[in-house]
């Protein structure tokens, strides 16, 4: 889809296609709507009389073939209360508009949405966030469809956003376009089936996408990891025919001396549970168990594309958890990269094993300023928080507050759960340093406590359990049109902007 910004002077309804204008609550028409209403001899005000449109956010009023203007369609969109209009709301509205126009006949649309009085959003930001919403909605994962393609076709291919200062809007959009690219990469990786996307293929794609942007990429295979002592990560991968991989991505856009922000991702390309095998229905969707790694990779792409002034390192542990004759077993003891021994009591609690070694490697090699890991770690977090919040666990309250703030801005929200020595007791092993499951209760917390065992002294760390938000059934939000949501890219990008960029 082509999205561009045009000045009000160039834009007139003398052109065909759909024209989208706006009203706020109580059907107060904004200037562009007033103008087009006049030019069409009152088509909008007449239609309003026969409609239940009141200007609430997300409402639409549509007039087909209005007389007096060349536009094929006038679409009036509700913005709601001007005071509550914000960036993420505009993204939703942009996505809703695009969705509406997908079912229409036109290939082109103009969006002419004024900033309402009493709104604190700036004009360029309004245009840019509308465009961002349109772009996010344009995502589709149709590469494996071969029949009835016309059912999935979208005629809308050109969207022009009318704004008083197109250059300013373009500038505001530049960063968001980069974030959308990162989200799309993350969604693609999550949606891709596991016979197509296995560890080496994930690593290959990460390299292909990122190295051309100036990200330094290293890929460690099993031989190298064995030499270095990645006993926990390799234990998980040993029952798979596919080779495990560790991918290290470095973006150095900040000051030379500045310690990097480290992002670590769980990349289980398929989680069968291993010998502690999942039941059939529990295994469906486990191609998405690499969503943490996908979010890290997508974020690195966004940072590099917009040349973020920050030093960031992304480390992802890529494995497949499978149950062949060489698989690790319940009762096995693994020696992790940190030297700590782990008694495996359930091979389905594999994500924490992968993260343990990835975290140790990241901290020892990069001495980062802080480390944030993302993982579809526990079903228990879905039971606790459902689909609207990711769980956050941390040893640093300031970092939690920063993540929470970025979450409020982007709509990728988080909810803090506790860490406490009490829960750590639940993962004491009878024979090794730690065991990989806690017990029947507080499963997300004991998983986080396990990770904490691998956080080095004084390291600032947060863990995001994204099992409930990384994918979705149906379409819950207009700007998230596919199964894989790309959750985390927006949040991490925003966190960098708010706190860590020079
Ligand atoms: N990948 C799963 C967690 C998961 C479950 C993500 C459902 C998304 C939806 C993880 O590896 C897992 O299997 N966790 C177990 C841990 C248990 C064995 C202690 C779980 O949550 O049941
Ligand atoms: Mn598992
Ligand atoms: Zn898993």
Compute the number of strand runs. 18
- Low-confidence sequence ranges: none
Ligands and ions found: ligand BES, manganese (II) ion, zinc ion
Radius of gyration over all CA atoms, rounded: 25 Å
Cα end-to-end separation = 33 Å
Dominant shape: elongated
Strand order of the largest sheet: 8-9-11-10-14-18-15-16
Task: Give the rounded overall mean pLDDT.
Answer: 97
Helix/strand structural class: alpha/beta
Give the % helix: 25-40%
* Total number of helices: 16
Structural features:
502 residues; alpha/beta; seven-stranded mixed beta sheet; 16 helices; elongated; binds ligand BES; binds manganese (II) ion; binds zinc ion
What does it look like?
By secondary structure, the chain is of the alpha/beta class. The protein is built from 16 helices and 18 strands. It binds ligand BES, manganese (II) ion (MN) and zinc ion.
Write the layout of secondary structure elements.
Layout: E1 2-6, E2 18-24, E3 28-29, H1 31-39, H2 43-49, E4 60-64, E5 73-78, H3 87-102, E6 108-111, H4 123-137, E7 158-162, H5 166-191, H6 199-210, E8 216-220, H7 222-228, H8 231-237, E9 245-252, E10 261-271, H9 280-283, H10 291-305, E11 311-321, E12 333-335, E13 341-343, H11 351-366, E14 370-375, H12 379-385, E15 389-394, H13 397-410, E16 413-416, H14 421-424, E17 434-435, H15 443-452, E18 461-465, H16 489-500
Parallel strand pairs: 1-7, 2-5, 2-6, 6-7, 10-11, 10-14, 13-17, 14-18, 15-16
Antiparallel strand pairs: 2-3, 4-5, 8-9, 9-11, 12-13, 15-18
Helix pairs in contact: 3-4, 4-5, 5-10, 8-11, 10-16, 11-15, 13-16
The chain binds ligand BES, manganese (II) ion and zinc ion.
Ligand BES is lined by residues 271, 289, 346, 348-351, 376-380, 382, 437, 443, 467.
């Amino acid at each position: 889809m082509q999205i561009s910004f045009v000045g009000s002077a160039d834009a007139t309804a003398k052109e065909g296609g759909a024209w989208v204008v706006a009203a706020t609550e109580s059907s107060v028409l904004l200037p562009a709507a007033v103008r087009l209403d006049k030019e069409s001899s009152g088509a909008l005000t007449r239609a309003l009389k026969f409609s239940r449109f009141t200007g609430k956010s997300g409402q639409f009023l549509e007039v087909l073939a209005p007389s007096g203007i060349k536009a094929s369609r006038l679409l009036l969109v509700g913005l709601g209360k001007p005071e509550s209009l914000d960036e993420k709301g505009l993204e939703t509205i942009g996505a809703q508009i695009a969705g509406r126009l997908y079912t229409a006949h036109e290939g082109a649309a103009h969006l002419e949405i004024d900033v309402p009085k009493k709104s604190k959003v700036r004009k360029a930001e309004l245009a840019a966030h509308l465009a961002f919403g349109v772009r996010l909605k344009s995502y589709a994962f149709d590469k494996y469809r071969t029949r009835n393609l016309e059912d999935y076709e979208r005629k809308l291919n050109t969207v022009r956003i009318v704004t008083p200062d197109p250059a300013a809007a373009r500038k505001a959009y530049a960063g968001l376009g980069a974030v959308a690219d990162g989200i799309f990469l993350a969604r693609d990786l999550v949606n891709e089936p596991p016979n197509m996307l296995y560890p080496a293929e994930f690593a290959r794609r990460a390299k292909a996408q990122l190295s051309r942007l100036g990200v330094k990429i290293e890929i460690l295979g099993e031989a190298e990891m064995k030499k270095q002592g990645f006993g926990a990560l390799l234990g998980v991968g040993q029952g798979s025919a596919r080779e495990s991989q560790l991918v290290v991505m470095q973006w150095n856009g900040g000051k030379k001396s500045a310690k990097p922000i480290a992002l670590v991702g769980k990349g289980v390309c398929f989680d069968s549970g291993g010998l502690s095998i999942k039941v059939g229905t529990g295994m469906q969707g486990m191609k998405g168990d690499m969503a943490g790694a996908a979010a890290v990779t997508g974020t690195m792409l966004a940072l590099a594309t917009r040349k973020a002034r920050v030093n960031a390192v992304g480390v992802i542990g890529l494995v497949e958890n499978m149950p062949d004759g060489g698989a690790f077993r319940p009762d096995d003891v693994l020696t992790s990269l940190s030297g700590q021994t782990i008694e495996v009591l359930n091979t389905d609690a594999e994500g924490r094993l992968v993260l343990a070694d990835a975290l140790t490697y990241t901290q020892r090699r990069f001495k980062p300023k802080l480390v944030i890991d993302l993982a579809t770690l526990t079903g228990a977090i879905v039971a606790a928080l459902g689909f609207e919040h990711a769980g956050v666990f941390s040893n640093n309250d300031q970092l939690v507050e920063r993540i929470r703030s970025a979450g409020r801005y982007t709509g990728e929200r988080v909810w803090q759960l506790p860490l406490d020595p009490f829960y750590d007791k639940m993962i004491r092993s009878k024979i090794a340093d730690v065991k990989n499951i806690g017990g029947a209760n507080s499963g997300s917390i004991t998983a986080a406590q396990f990770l904490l065992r691998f956080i080095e002294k004084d390291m600032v760390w947060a863990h995001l359990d994204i099992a409930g938000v990384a994918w979705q059934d149906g379409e819950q939000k207009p700007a998230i049109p596919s199964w894989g949501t790309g959750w985390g890219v927006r949040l991490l990008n925003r966190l960098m902007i708010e706190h860590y960029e020079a």
